[in-house]
Amino acid sequence: MAHFELNTPVPEAQIRALRLCDTISLSGSLFGIRDATQIHLFDRGRETRFDLAGHAVIHTAPNVRRVPRCPEYPAGYAPVCIGTTTSARMERFTRPLLGQYGVRMIIGKGGLLRDSLQAFAELGGVYLAIVGGTAALETTWIEAIEDVDLDDLNPESLWRFRVRDFGPLMVAMDSHGGSLYDQVRDDAAARREAALATMGVHT
């Protein structure tokens, strides 16, 4: 297990060097995305003016407030609370995010499923887990909301945040077939079988 400090955009080789349970911190641009954003991008044919190649997206619909545009608030929004949401329901969008837009990292909570794990291996990507319930802390890692696209979907717009030392984030699914969620499930199943065996119960 190692710690990496990455600046976005990140080349595929750096992503493939990451292994399960490594930790990273991110600096540069980070894109906020959620269900409606991806439905409009992939089901309804809308396009974004943002270049997502080599970048990370975070599953979020931030709580923000409108403010006058100025150097501190270039998009006219100030962050109030920006936290992650559960990722599994957005499973079907992993492959097009990587394949069509070149996204390399997805940040969320709760993990993704088997097709995402396969897409990470084929296309070069990772899933980065963050502890749930830390939205207030995550918000302090965001220096500014730099820009926003598809803003008619607010708060599920496509947000571009400027971040510094965002993390630590744990590599919970890597590009080598490793999944922390699979490991936890398999370990729990093995312990269950062992516990039942001690009671003379065989399944």
TrEMBL record:
UniProt cross-references to Pfam families, sorted A to Z: Fumerase_C
Named from the GO MF annotations, one term is: hydro-lyase activity
Q: Which UniProt keywords apply?
A: Lyase
Q: Which domain of life is it from?
A: Bacteria
Source organism phylogeny: Bacteria, Pseudomonadati, Pseudomonadota, Gammaproteobacteria, Chromatiales
- Name-wise, this protein is L(+)-tartrate dehydratase beta subunit
Limits of the Fe-S hydro-lyase tartrate dehydratase beta-type catalytic domain: 4-183
**Cleavable signal peptide:** none
Q: Which family does it belong to?
A: Belongs to the class-I fumarase family.
Under the heading SUPFAM superfamilies, the entry gives:
FumA C-terminal domain-like (SSF117457)
